[in-house]
Amino acid sequence: MKPSDPIGVFDSGLGGLSVVDTLRRMMPDEQILYFGDSARNPYGTKTMDEVRQYSFEIVEQFRKQNVKAVIIACNTATSAAAKELRKAFDFDIVGMEPALKPAAEMKTPSKIAVWATELTLNQEKFAHLMERFDSNHDIVRVPCSRLVELVETDQLEDQQTVDAALKEYLSQSEDAEFIVLGCTHFLFFKDRLRQLAGGQVQIIDGNAGTVNRLHSLLEQKGLLAPAAKGSLTIDNSQPEKIDLSWKLYHSLEEK
Ligand code: DGL
Hints:
By secondary structure, this protein is of the alpha/beta class. It is built from 11 helices and 9 strands. The model has no long low-confidence stretch (mean pLDDT 96).
């Protein structure tokens, strides 16, 4: 493994591009290979075994491309497969989990709504995370599969449809003071959600935390890329989604 080797980033589809945006801003010298599994999206309503199998297939492809590390840019795949993937591969694998801890540490007690996929919210991993904080906080779980669908089907510009979905999930969030975005697809709604939720609600996500973790792991091993012009390659199991991927990525990059 060498510093100039690429970093593999994957998600069940297009959501992980929000992590790529953070990664490119924080580590601009790196070569990034992105893979979105839109053909099998959504992962959030599949079984743990199915998501684990898909994740292994994708990381095996990254291994063949000589990656030096992988980011699982998907909370769902992380909870289903991160532990097993780390045992099976010899490069660093960094995952994502709903950023409940940073939210809980900002104010105690507080009302926190965790927006994520069904599979993430029903996993043992999330139950353990909840246990650490629910004695001091009022935490509500809000499964938001519709938001994943709106990103995958290119409906982000349909303001009426987007607002209807966001309002529905806000109504299930029981006056939360914090909303944790526990699915990488939801980052595309962050600005609009902030407007609809009002200034008193803080919206938290785990993207920067994940990239920081990757940075420190690569730094420890002397595997950070040398100063160079980084690059991004986007691939998808549904090739017709590649144009949409670039469109979404650029919409974040321009912010
Ligand atoms: N983007 C994924 C996550 O972070 C899941 C979306 C899906 O259901 O496929 O959880």
